[in-house]
Design goal:
This protein is α/β, with parallel strands linked by helices and about 280 residues long. It has one domain (about 5-275): 3-Layer(aba) Sandwich (Rossmann fold), CATH 3.40.50.150. Helix content is about 45%, strand content about 20%. It has helices spanning about 5-10, 15-30, 40-45, 55-65, 80-90, 100-115, 150-160, 200-210, 220-235, 245-250, 250-265, and strands at about 70-75, 90-95, 120-125, 135-140, 160-175, 210-220, 270-275. Strands 3-2-1-4-5-7-6 form a 7-stranded mixed beta sheet, sandwiched between helices. The longest helix is centred in the C-terminal third of the chain and has 18 residues, at about 220-235. The radius of gyration is 18 Å and the shape is globular. The chain starts with a helix and ends with a strand.
């Protein structure tokens, strides 16, 4: 998918300032006009994965960030994981995203949280990261590579900007054995915009880019169980007052239904990967 198509899919005509204003207004409407804006109060709305903050926490368990390190968030969206990790672990996190409206919203939300000194957001593409070699201790990407055909190019760039011994953690959807999913999906409106790799593709591309694959886990059962529990909770109690629907709108419902069905039917798998740049 081209950078323009990615921006159209995720942001359309929305602006970053409008996104940030909607999010802050929703938090204040639910939590009170005097609520302190923090990565925790924003967490129900700004972690762009099916499991929300729980998904970010699972990724961080493998990333294992240390205080004082420099981290790279590839495809940082509106910055929720970057803000949360920076404040929880005492890191400096740089996010890069191709969707300009997301970058603008992320910067405004960083300012609202008072974390602009710990979280930097850069407009850019994962295929040409605007950073010097060996800039980061660790890097991660959560559910973003499905929009990129040249995954090998992303891995080469990630390897370049990581320090020797640096860790890359990927949580992403892979192709399932039972054919393609129905669209729209969270990452693509049509099949032409979706690029689901196989396990073999990813092993090959990571190795060719210079990484050693440390672990490769099919997390589909755990992920599907978590989504099933969330689905039942919403059916029983209704949607939460704060959630990604504040940002995405009505189209989120169909995307999530198709994503759930694809996992259930073996058309998409969730994988968790840890790779390491050699010393």
């Amino acid at each position: 998918m081209s950078a323009h198509s990615v921006q159209d899919h995720y942001a359309g005509d929305d602006t970053g300032s409008a996104m940030a204003s909607r999010i802050l207004a929703a938090v204040r409407a639910v939590c009170g006009s005097d609520v302190t804006i923090t990565p925790e109060t924003l967490a129900p709305l700004d972690h762009f994965n099916g499991r929300g903050l729980a998904g970010t926490q699972a990724l961080v368990a493998l990333l294992d960030p240390q205080a004082g390190e420099f981290l790279l968030d590839i495809g940082s969206g509106i910055g929720g994981p970057a803000r949360w990790i920076a404040m929880q672990y005492g890191c400096t996190v740089t996010g890069v995203d191709v969707t300009a409206a997301f970058c603008e919203a992320a910067r405004l939300l960083n300012a609202a949280c008072g974390v602009a000194d710990r979280v930097r957001i850069v407009d850019g593409t994962a295929l040409a990261l605007p950073f010097p070699d060996a800039s980061f201790d660790r890097a991660y990407a959560h559910g973003v590579l499905t929009s990129i055909a040249d995954k090998g190019g992303v891995y080469r760039e990630a390897c370049r900007v990581l320090k020797p011994g640096g860790r890359l953690v990927l949580f992403q959807q892979h192709a399932g054995p039972n054919g393609p999913p129905e669209f729209p999906m969270p990452w693509a409106a049509t099949p032409a915009e979706s690029f689901l790799a196989t396990d073999a593709d990813t092993h090959r591309d990571l190795t060719a880019a210079g990484f050693a694959v440390v672990s490769f886990h099919d997390a589909t059962p755990e992920y599907f169980a978590a989504l099933t529990a969330l689905r039942r909770k919403i059916e029983a109690e209704g949607p939460p007052p704060l959630g990604m629907h504040v940002l995405i709108g009505d189209r989120l419902r169909q995307q999530r239904t198709n994503s759930y069905n694809a996992l259930r039917d073996g058309r998409v798998r969730m994988v968790e990967i840890v790779a390491r740049k050699p010393d």
